[in-house]
Recover the amino acids of this structure.
């Protein structure tokens, strides 16, 4: 089908037309989220959400696996992580917090 072929090369098509494909991935992600909500798919999608103790983190929005359905994010899924994966997540959280701290000082 032509639609399937056009979808496969969507990023390349945008790059050719606009000089960048930076719009393709965010648009595709938003489309996936909207479909999961409208069709109540209960789909597992990585999302940036405010954590409240999950993965040992609180008061921080960071990307984790979530179940998305008609109510939006219906569940934050905590998967078992290896020690290396936990260390990497904590390093990412530390970087996000540092960036948030900088942004908070700018907004005062």
């Amino acid at each position: 089908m032509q639609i399937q072929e056009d979808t496969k090369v969507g990023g390349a098509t945008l790059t050719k037309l606009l000089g960048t494909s930076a719009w393709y991935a965010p648009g595709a992600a938003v489309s996936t989220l909207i479909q999961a909500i409208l069709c109540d798919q209960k789909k597992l999608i990585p999302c940036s959400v405010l954590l409240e103790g999950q993965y040992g983190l609180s008061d921080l929005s960071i990307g984790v696996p979530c179940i998305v359905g008609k109510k939006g994010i219906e569940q934050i899924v905590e998967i078992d992580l290896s020690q290396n994966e936990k260390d990497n997540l904590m390093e990412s959280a530390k970087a996000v917090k540092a960036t948030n701290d900088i942004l908070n000082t700018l907004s005062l």
